[in-house]
Write a structure and sequence with these properties.
Blueprint (H helix, E strand, L loop, with lengths): L2 H68 L6 H33 L11 E3 L1 H17 L4 E4 L10 E3 L1 H18 L5 E9 L4 E8 L6 H6 L8 H6 L7 H11 L3 E6 L5 E8 L4 H14 L1
Parallel strand pairs: 2-4
Antiparallel strand pairs: 1-3, 4-5, 5-7, 6-7
Helix pairs in contact: 1-2, 2-3, 2-4, 2-7, 3-4, 4-7
Length: about 290
C-alpha cells in the first residue's frame, strides 16, 4: 500500500469514527429528549387528575346539598342557611379552580402584556381585597376562620394600574391557600402600605397554619412546588396557584414574596406600581382603537 493510500484510509477511518461519535451523541440526546417528553406527559396526566379531583369535590358537595334542599330533607331555617352558605363557598372554590386551569395555558404561552386582551385600568386594592374577603369568608367559616381586612393605610393608598381580572386571581390564589392551610379557629389578616417615594402599594396576607420553612420561601412560587406538610394535608393539590400568582405579578412588573413573621405566621406580600405601566396602557389603548 502506497503512503497516499494509507493516508487516505486513515482519513476515512477518522471520519467514520467522528460520525460514530456524533451518532452516539445524537442517540444520547434523543434518549434524553424522550425521557423529558415522558416526564412531561406524566406531569400533564397527574395535573389533569388533580384538577379533576379538586373540581369534582366541590361540585359533588353542591349536588348533595341541593338535593337535600329540593327533596325537603332539611326543615330547620338555620340549617338551610348553613347549607346555602356551604353551596356558595363550594361554588366559589369551583370557579376559582376553573379560572386557574384556564390561565395556565395562556400564561405558559406568553408571560407578557402583549398576548392579553383585557385593558389596564386603575384598581382600588382595598376595595378588591374587601370583595375577595367577602367571597372567601363562607369557605373560611367551615373552619371557623375569620378573614379581616385592616382599613388603613391600604384604604387611603392610590389605585394601581393593572389588569383587574388577573390581579383578582392573584389574591384569590393567595386567599384560597390561606384558608386551606390555616388552622381551625384562627384569623387571616389582610393589610397594606403605600410607599410614596417608590410609587408602589403593597398588600400583605397573613395566616396561621403550616409554617413556611426557609426552603419553602425560596421555592413556593415554582411550578408544581408543594411542601411536605402541604402534600400530607392535601395530597391532591396541584401546586400551581402561587406559580400562577407570580406569573401574573411578573407581567405587571411587580413583586410577590413569601415569608414568616416573628410570631410564625405565613406572610405573602404583593407589591404593585401605581403608574409604572402608564405608557403600556396608552400603547394598548392605541392598538385597541385601531383594531376597531
Amino acid at each position: 500500500m502506497s503512503p497516499s493510500e494509507a493516508t487516505s484510509d486513515a482519513q476515512l477511518q477518522a471520519r467514520i469514527e467522528a460520525l460514530e461519535r456524533k451518532i452516539t451523541m445524537l442517540d444520547r440526546d434523543a434518549a434524553a429528549l424522550n425521557g423529558q417528553m415522558e416526564q412531561i406527559s406524566r406531569d400533564r396526566i397527574e395535573y389533569l387528575q388533580n384538577v379533576s379531583h379538586q373540581l369534582v369535590a366541590p361540585l359533588n358537595a353542591m349536588k348533595w346539598h341541593i338535593e337535600n334542599l329540593t327533596e325537603g330533607r332539611i326543615k330547620d331555617i338555620e340549617r338551610i342557611r348553613k347549607v346555602l352558605r356551604s353551596v356558595y363557598s363550594q361554588a366559589t372554590l369551583a370557579v376559582h379552580l376553573a379560572k386557574n386551569f384556564a390561565l395556565m395555558s395562556n400564561l405558559e404561552a406568553d408571560h407578557s402584556l402583549s398576548a392579553l386582551k383585557e385593558p389596564l385600568q386603575p384598581v382600588d386594592l382595598y376595595r378588591l381585597m374587601v370583595n375577595l374577603a367577602d367571597d372567601f369568608q363562607p369557605l373560611a367559616w367551615d373552619k371557623n376562620i375569620q378573614i379581616k381586612v385592616i382599613d388603613q393605610p391600604l384604604k387611603s393608598a392610590p389605585e394601581v394600574l393593572a389588569i383587574k381580572p388577573l390581579l383578582s386571581q392573584v389574591f384569590s390564589n393567595i386567599l384560597e391557600n390561606a384558608v386551606k392551610y390555616s388552622s381551625q379557629g384562627t384569623q387571616i389578616v389582610i393589610d397594606g402600605s403605600h410607599d410614596t417615594g417608590a410609587r408602589t402599594v403593597s398588600v400583605r396576607v397573613k395566616n396561621s397554619g403550616i409554617p413556611l420553612s426557609h426552603e419553602d420561601e425560596q421555592h413556593v412560587f415554582e411550578r408544581g412546588y408543594r411542601s411536605k406538610d402541604a402534600r400530607n394535608l392535601y395530597p391532591a393539590g396541584t401546586g400551581f396557584g402561587l406559580y400562577i400568582a407570580k406569573a401574573i405579578v411578573d407581567i405587571h412588573e411587580g413583586t410577590i414574596l413569601a415569608s414568616s413573621d416573628e410570631s410564625g405566621k405565613s406572610v405573602f406580600t404583593v407589591t404593585l406600581h401605581v403608574d409604572k405601566l402608564m405608557g403600556k396602557a396608552r400603547q394598548r389603548g392605541q392598538k385597541d382603537s385601531t383594531a376597531h
